[in-house]
Write a structure and sequence with these properties.
6 helices, mainly alpha, single chain
């Protein structure tokens, strides 16, 4: 679910940022305030945070909001897009947490399997010593005995 939503939200953000960048190309100060740097160089968590900061800054800029409204990018729409990003951040956090929990469960399982393997090795050694003179009984336990 996270990855599907990630693609949609990323497309939405790129579309909005492209329009804002085009509408503000004659105002480098505004572009600086909105931090219109490339997102492709950022890790997933960082571009989501950058996107949220972009919307926060954008919603404070009345001049560009008026221009965006002409293209059906209303304050309500921009707020909804920001909320989509915030929701994506929550999904990412949850996915990262679940991944960590799964890795921990796998680590614990592997540790228990190693302990079981060690125990079985000791048990086999004890059985081999205890039943050294009863090879048929050892073979019935699955321990091969050369005759």
């Amino acid at each position: 679910m996270y990855y599907a939503q990630n693609d949609e939200v990323e497309k939405m953000l790129k579309k909005t940022r492209s329009l804002v960048k085009e509408l503000s190309k004659r105002d480098p100060d505004l572009q600086s305030r909105l931090n219109l740097s490339l997102l492709s160089d950022l890790r997933i968590h960082d571009w989501i945070q950058t996107g949220i900061a972009f919307y926060n800054s954008l919603l404070l800029e009345s001049g560009i909001l008026e221009k965006l409204a002409k293209y059906n990018f209303t304050t309500e729409r921009l707020t909804a897009e920001k909320q989509e990003l915030e929701g994506l951040l929550q999904l990412r956090t949850r996915a990262t947490l679940e991944k960590g929990q799964a890795q921990e469960a796998t680590r614990q399982r592997n540790q228990k399997l190693e302990e079981l393997e060690d125990y079985c090795g000791i048990l086999k050694a004890v059985v081999t010593i205890a039943l050294a003179d009863r090879p048929q009984l050892m073979e019935s336990l699955g321990i091969l005995v050369r005759s």
